[in-house]
Predict the structure.
Amino acid sequence: MAFDRKHLLGMDGVTREEILTILDTARSFREILERPIKRVPTLQGKTVVNLFFEPSTRTRISFELAEKRLSADIINFTASASSVKKGETLIDTVRNIEAMKIDMVVVRHSSPGAPHLLTRVVDANVINAGDGGHEHPTQALLDMMTIREKLGTLEGITVALVGDISHSRVAMSNIYGLRTMGARVLVCGPSTLIPKEIERLGVEVYYNVDEVIPQADVLNILRLQLERQRKGLFPSLREYHNYFGITRERLEKATRKLLIMHPGPMNRGVEISSDVADSDHSVILEQVTYGVAIRMAVLYLLAGGKSEIN
């Protein structure tokens, strides 16, 4: 199937066929990453700007590695070391960078909608690497790739998203993508961390994780954003762990071998115990590996996907 999108701004509205195209392309790139020589000339001559207005380790490094594996020229931008500190706006920053004749922009920003705004003022391809609590599409894609590679399908499986649903861009992108691919999606967390009327997105809502575990094929455990505790959205970290933390004892209630996923960074001993994170249930490190392949696929397809993958 031809991939005609110019940008990847979120999973909302991305079709089943487009998702399959990305996942199948990523599988080809995953094979390339196993070779002794892991670089291909696919984006040779293209310039990609990594525009990060928020701190990031995994996503930024994953995109940089994907770009290098595709032979792109890379410009890394961090707000803390730029004219943003002097009051320059997002639009002015991007326009100045585009004047340097760049081809693609990977952007992370604390404001929901920032990547959409950029598409109105630049001609380059724009990839959303996380915008506030809105979406994080490549994380959802790598999560879906991990599940598909491990279970063979996304159709008909049950995925439980556990934790801070209200403030999670990972949760939103996963909900859109998984529902499009025919998965059953459960969300579970304290009532203060579940958005009102989220059922409209086709998910089932639970407030007791022990009711979720026996139903699930996959547990995707979301990072508890510790700043939420200062806002009084739950009583304490200890109480959160007691009621919602994924522990070895809780996994004994599973009716089948669960896949344990986490987008990182993990708060060990809060949303997940160390013995679960490091267990044979866990595919957390494999998510990181698949993340590079997914980001290679997205860059390749948005650039036109005309070069041979070999």
Remarks:
- The chain has two domains: 16-136+288-302, 137-287.
